[in-house]
């Protein structure tokens, strides 16, 4: 799959973590980059992400390896920004519902078998390991604590990356409106935007989150899509001791730099209603339900007050694995489409930039090509 082009002018479409990270890495390699986004930066999925840095539970070996390298890149970043309040490694705590589907013991055994740092705690052990949790909410089978996990505030990270991108001479074009990919002779030659005109390109990276499958479908490429509508609720700042990310049967919680909490869950996603005009309706009872579920697992059961919420598509390929790299038959048309935007944000940008700048495929991305979905 070695490409034969030389990328001197690259257009990156997408203002989330994949687009911004890749654009910066390309600029570091000396490539001329134009970063284009339909709206503002971090105003899509990256702006409403739980942003849990992890590789817990079970997934393919290649995906686990990539996630672990992704976490390593964040540790390097944390070492350079020791005063950052937007990037923390205080661990993750997870437990399952008290029913026949409880797989916490099996999950712990799997994580230990692959060398993932994991401790199986009884409910009585939790307080001594990680603060801020109401142990009464944990089932008798216990909880897994993963001390190497963490979280990142993606808008803060994106601001940091954009500042360096600008310093390196990268061009930023926000609020460009809908983008159309221009092809000639089976290659990308540029992109046209509704509000900002046309940009010529030797190569393109499409990193538009949930819009990727529909855009590549215009050139006959199918990326099976399981994108749901997500809901991320943010509380007002609250006095609490929680430091770890919590992943519980009814709510996931992470701290924020301001002392607020962000919350999401699978059940709340299912209650979001998509209107005929494509907008979304969120019931007050859904939001209050998330706040109540979060209070129930926090020490002292504090009263949580809504600050804001974000709702919209959360990109997830149908098979759960990322889609990175060039499209089959169009070697200078690259894509980034994945659920784990936070964990993979830095490493995906690094590896995609290397591929685009050099035309050489990276072995770490070999399992994640769109070509795996092509008819056999």
TrEMBL record:
PANTHER family named in the record: GLYCINE OXIDASE (PTHR13847:SF289), SARCOSINE DEHYDROGENASE-RELATED (PTHR13847)
Pfam families, per database record: DAO
Protein name: FAD-binding oxidoreductase
GO molecular function annotations of the record: oxidoreductase activity
All copies of domain FAD dependent oxidoreductase, residue ranges: 9-354
Residue ranges of coiled coil: none
Gene Ontology cellular component annotations, sorted alphabetically: cytoplasm
SUPFAM superfamilies attached to this UniProt entry: FAD/NAD(P)-binding domain
Keyword match Nucleotide-binding: no
The species this protein was found in: Lichenifustis flavocetrariae
Keyword Oxidoreductase in record: yes
Record's keyword terms, sorted: Oxidoreductase
């Amino acid at each position: 799959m070695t490409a034969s082009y030389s990328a001197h002018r690259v257009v990156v479409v997408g203002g989330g973590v994949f687009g911004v990270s890749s654009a910066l890495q390309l600029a570091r390699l000396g490539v001329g980059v134009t970063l284009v986004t339909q709206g503002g930066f971090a105003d899509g999925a990256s702006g409403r992400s739980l942003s849990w840095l992890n590789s817990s539970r079970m997934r393919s070996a290649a995906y686990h390896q990539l996630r672990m390298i992704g976490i390593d890149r964040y540790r390097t970043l944390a070492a350079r920004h020791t005063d950052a309040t937007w990037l923390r490694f205080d661990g993750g705590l997870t437990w399952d519902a008290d029913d026949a589907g409880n797989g916490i013991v099996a999950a712990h055994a799997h994580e230990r078998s692959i060398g993932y740092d994991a401790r199986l705690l009884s409910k009585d052990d939790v307080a001594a390991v990680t603060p801020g949790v109401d142990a009464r909410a944990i089932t008798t089978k216990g909880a897994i604590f993963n001390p190497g996990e963490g979280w990142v505030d993606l808008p803060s990270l994106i601001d940091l990356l954009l500042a360096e991108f600008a310093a390196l001479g990268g061009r930023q074009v926000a609020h460009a409106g809908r983008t159309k990919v221009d092809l000639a002779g089976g290659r990308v030659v540029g992109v046209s935007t509704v509000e900002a005109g046309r940009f010529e390109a030797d190569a393109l990276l499409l990193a538009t989150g949930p819009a990727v499958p529909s855009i590549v479908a215009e050139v006959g490429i199918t990326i099976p899509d399981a994108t749901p509508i997500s809901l991320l609720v943010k509380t007002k700042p609250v006095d609490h001791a929680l430091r770890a990310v919590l992943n519980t049967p009814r709510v996931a919680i992470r701290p924020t730099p301001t002392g607020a909490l962000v919350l999401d869950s699978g059940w709340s996603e299912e209650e979001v209603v998509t209107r005929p005009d494509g907008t979304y309706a969120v019931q007050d009872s859904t939001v209050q339900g998330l706040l109540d579920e979060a209070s129930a697992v926090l020490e002292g059961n504090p009263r949580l007050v809504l600050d804001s919420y974000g709702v919209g598509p959360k990109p997830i390929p149908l098979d759960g694995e990322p889609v990175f790299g060039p499209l089959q038959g169009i070697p200078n048309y690259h894509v980034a489409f994945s659920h784990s935007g936070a964990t993979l944000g830095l490493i995906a940008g690094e590896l995609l930039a290397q591929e685009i700048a050099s035309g050489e495929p990276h072995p770490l991305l070999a399992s994640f090509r769109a070509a795996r979905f092509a008819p056999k």
